[in-house]
Design brief:
The protein has 144 residues and is mainly α. The chain has five helices and two strands; from the N terminus they run H-H-E-H-H-E-H.
């Protein structure tokens, strides 16, 4: 049954479906290819997706349903660009947002330890050339 609604599925950088960049190879140019963070997802990717859908559908506003990371980046966008979201989004449904378990730090020594070293671990992995999980790096392919 056609209720007259278009359904668009967004795709963020950094997953297996986003590896066909126009100029960067995810293995040969891994450092540059993976040089983005959640802020880029919010400010660049999500805004581009919303603007593209509005342009293609000739709509002033769209309804947005996000799950997990899609919810998180919309919360971030709403917090940082309220006027844009109010002008572009008619309805927002957020399902299963990704969170940092800061309240769990008092409850679990494992969570407390992981949260306290996450930035150091990220820097170490970045230094060693691990820009993406399960992708070959100089370290993981040494001697092959």
């Amino acid at each position: 049954m056609d209720a007259g609604y278009d359904v668009w599925l967004g795709n963020l950088r950094g997953n297996k479906y986003s590896r066909r960049h126009l100029t960067l190879d995810p293995v040969a140019n891994a450092r540059e290819f993976f040089e983005f963070d959640i802020g880029h997802h919010e400010r660049v990717d999500l805004v581009s997706i919303i603007d593209y859908i509005k342009r293609e559908t000739k709509s002033d506003k769209i309804a947005y349903v996000g799950h997990s990371m899609g919810t998180t980046i919309m919360f971030r966008l709403a917090a940082n660009q309220q006027a844009y979201v109010e002008a572009s989004i008619s309805t927002f449904v957020g399902l299963g947002p990704v969170i940092v378990p800061t309240n769990a730090q008092q409850q679990s020594p494992v969570v407390s330890s992981a949260v306290s070293i996450q930035d150091y671990l990220y820097e170490l992995l970045y230094y060693l050339g691990f820009y993406s999980l399960f992708s070959p790096t100089r370290l993981s392919t040494f001697g092959l």
